[in-house]
Amino acid sequence: MVELKNVTFEYSSGDGLERGSAGGIDEKVSNGSLCGVNLSVNDGEFLLLTGGSGCGKTTILRLLNGLIPNFFEGQLKGSVIIDGVDVSHAELYDTAKTVSTVFQNPRSQFFNVDTTSELAFALENQGRPEQEIIDKVNATVKEMSLEPLMNRSLFNLSGGQKQKIACASVAVTGNKIILLDEPSANLDLKTIDELAGLLKKWKNEGKTIIVAEHRISYLWELADRTVVLKEGQIVRELSRAQMDKISEEELHELGLRTNRWLSSPQDIRSLSDVEGSKPQLSKETQPPLEIKNFRYKYSNGYLALNIPQMQIPVGKITAITGNNGDGKTTLLNCLCGLGRRSKGTLLYQDKNYNRHGRQKLIFLVMQDVNHQLFTESVLDEVLISQAEENEEEARHILATLDLEAFADRHPQSLSGGQKQRVAVASAIASGREIMLFDEPTSGLDYNHMLQIGEIFRNLKKLGKTVIVVTHDRELIKECCDQEIHLADYNSI
């Protein structure tokens, strides 16, 4: 039994890393704190935690796995009980024998540099016998079809592949309580389906599963109950029967994403759009962006990209889709000039741009935005992206992204979704003609996903070319003019 009894928690200044607005509707700033939360989860129950960014979902998980107060400091009132033990007074290593967590950013939970060692780490840390460790790792690899990922550097894996390893490192422990924080954020549709299958297996084994998630469609049939949070309080609880009856419109009114599984463009077109019909492609008035003989090899000789020819419309919003590991992020890195080993030609407005020329033409918002946040404040982050500093314009950009209240905050003190929006703000401030976005809605709630779609449409109105790598079918439905499936062009 998992119980939160009248739990109130407030992070110490700068410690929460889950601070944000309430989803674009309420201007009040939430900081991931909790206020008077009472919640019970029965053994073997599958609970879905959802709500807007900064509502407290991650905070609940941190309380349950002991990271609060052992790692994240703050003022805690109330009790967090697991099997009769108050977690806040227990040692982390004792809690870890019962509770396993898959974090939103799997990179933050890795302790090794290769995949096989990572799977063995938790068992080694518990002092299990060597043969038991080998047997459990091998069984987990076989069960999750991870053979192609074994004995590989974690640094060379895609975001989705890292998430698979994170899930496997949890599965191998056999712990009876499993917590997952935005586990689908960087996964393709096929891998999300595989994750749902793994969760179903854990559920059938009697595991207690608690998932904090914005993308709820793949979980909707699995969850026994849904808890909706807003500003640190539970505002709605849905039983299984209520989940079966609730409409998509009611979910949107709660600030939640669709509960319908969107798996293909046909599915997307069959749904009613949020703001009118899906944009239709018009006849191009400008020559397309043309890619010829684009190739990229890693230092070990692995050919990750080989595109003989691809055309991308100028002044449009194009989604690049595909499975994890297909080379989508590699393509963006090569397009903007980051791939030093890249070969090939990029033609734009009848001019051939080499790697250095592309760096001045194109702006990239990375999948892991921590790699491109450099300054001491959110405002400074936007200012350094401008050709000439203009604070009034910078603050206006922040306001359009619900970030004005954080102008003086350090970027690294923000939540993942907020950091994502800071990087988007920097892209807008740069004024570049071509803008690349790598999974810009990972970790974003429904309202901020709509906000990103609106920003992309506004960029298109300004004549910008937007290229977005995404697994987010709701975003594609919301704003994209064209979808390019990379595997149709990448001949590797």
Describe this structure in words.
This protein has 492 residues and is an alpha/beta fold. The chain contains 17 helices and 21 strands. The protein has helices at 57-65, 67-70, 92-95, 115-125, 130-143, 159-171, 189-204, 240-245, 248-253, 265-270, 328-335, 355-361, 378-383, 391-400, 416-430, 446-461, 473-479; strands at residues 2-11, 20-21, 29-30, 34-41, 46-51, 74-82, 85-86, 99-102, 177-181, 208-212, 225-230, 233-239, 289-297, 303-312, 317-321, 343-348, 351-353, 362-365, 434-438, 465-469, 482-485. It starts with a strand and ends in a 7-residue tail after the last strand. The longest helix is centred in the middle third of the chain and has 16 residues, at 189-204. The protein has a six-stranded mixed beta sheet, with helices on both faces. The protein is 32% helix and 24% strand. Strand 11 and strand 12 (233-239) form a beta hairpin. Helix 14 (391-400) crosses helix 15. The model is unreliable at 16-30 and 265-284 (pLDDT under 50).
